[in-house]
Amino acid sequence: MQKITNNIYYVGVNDRNKHLFEGLWPLPDGVSYNSYLIVDDKVCLVDTVDAAFFTQYIENIRAVLGDRQIDYIVINHMEPDHSGSLSLIKKYYPDARIVGNKKTFGMMEGFYGIGDGCVEVKNGDTISLGQTTLSFVMTPMVHWPETMMTLASVPDVGRMQTVLFSGDAFGCFGALNGGITDSRIDCSHFWLEMVRYYSNIVGKYGVPVQNALKKLAGVNLDYICSTHGPVWHENIKRVVGMYDGMSRYATEPGLVICYGTMYGNTERAAEEIARAASEAGVRNIVMYNVSKTHHSYIIRDVFRYRGLIVGAPTYNTGLYHEMDVLLSELAGRDIKNHLIGWFGSYAWASKAVAKIEKWNNDHLHFEHVGPVVEIKQSLDDVTAAQCRELGRTMAEALKNLFHRVCHPDDITPVAADEAPAL
């Protein structure tokens, strides 16, 4: 256990064993499941952890409480990586009352068969723990319908501190290697993992995230205690700003080029496009082979950068499978404010470019930029020139929108109308 501030303790755990989060998203650096204890006249546990880590979890709780009982268990989010230990906790603390909203309890009954000992709260309701007061903010669809956040007004020397228990919001991938609070750890590797976490898991729900931020507007936060990743203290402004930008689909003036290739011909075309875009002034260019790089990283960078160019060969009279999957994943996130170009190749039957165009027209609705390049069998002088024209046209479109080119280390999304002039 580690003390965060005054009477709030971290009792979460780290998972460095799981390869895929939700069975989908790679975890090269693990993930934390964060849970917190507020110890006052009454004791409150905020969220739990994955049931697989219950033995360590109950030891963490007992290290703080000893023989004291838990009075309340606040469940901000019902996903099992956070609520999974609820049934076991109730065996150790049977008198603890579970705090949630109406939708929380419907899910709790379905997941765990728990229906008694509940305290239903609505937006703005409060619970007193003694000197600490909890107030509840309903944030539906960030990113489940029952999600809520808990604000704690905590006594400190000479003043009250405000601590936000935010559920999955403001979270990121990555285990916590020693320190818990951002002021005690190197956070550099967490920033891109926050973008990847948001874009892959929360990305579809930009409007609900904006609604949640509006409810929190004007609240002067001292700590943000998410259910994944560091406890934010020194970097609160940056973290909230990133969520604000990402949920508005704000972007940087960069370019993602992703392609499928079987024998290298489509890849050669992608290289021509990238070189031309670079020569035309785009510094932020990332390239991905969709069959080699996990799509979660591609989705992350599509969220970051305004420009997207995709290309793939025809396969089985349709679109190359991995590109088809990627476009489906992008469409499912309702991404806005992007430019797109595309190219394709075929040996004897042209289908790829038509399939990509259909994805954009029917689902993505991105602004089309540049010529459509179609390569029969292999790249030649004509199609290579068309590829270079596609790269140049995309570069000019990005420069016209942003009037500058970002430094590659600047990962904070920027809206087009907020970008400074060159």
What are the SSEs and their pairings?
Blueprint: E1 2-5, E2 8-10, E3 13-15, E4 20-21, E5 25-26, E6 31-33, E7 36-39, E8 43-46, H1 54-65, E9 72-74, H2 80-83, H3 86-92, E10 97-100, H4 102-112, E11 118-120, E12 126-128, E13 133-138, E14 148-156, E15 159-167, H5 190-202, H6 206-216, E16 223-226, H7 236-247, E17 252-259, H8 265-279, E18 285-289, H9 295-304, E19 305-315, E20 318-319, H10 321-331, E21 339-346, H11 352-364, E22 367-368, E23 373-376, H12 381-402
Name the descriptors.
single chain; 422 residues; alpha/beta; 23 strands; 33% helix; elongated; disordered C terminus
What does this structure look like?
- The protein has 422 residues and is of the alpha/beta class.
- It is built from 12 helices and 23 strands.
- It has helices at residues 54-65, 80-83, 86-92, 102-112, 190-202, 206-216, 236-247, 265-279, 295-304, 321-331, 352-364, 381-402, and strands spanning 2-5, 8-10, 13-15, 20-21, 25-26, 31-33, 36-39, 43-46, 72-74, 97-100, 118-120, 126-128, 133-138, 148-156, 159-167, 223-226, 252-259, 285-289, 305-315, 318-319, 339-346, 367-368, 373-376.
- The strands form 5 sheets. It has a 7-stranded mixed β-sheet with strand order 1-2-7-8-9-10-11.
- Strand 10, helix 4 and strand 11 form a beta-alpha-beta unit.
- Helix 10 (321-331) packs parallel to helix 11 (352-364).
- It is elongated, with a radius of gyration of 24 Å.
- It starts with a strand and ends in a 20-residue tail after the last helix.
- Mean pLDDT is 93; it is low at 405-422.
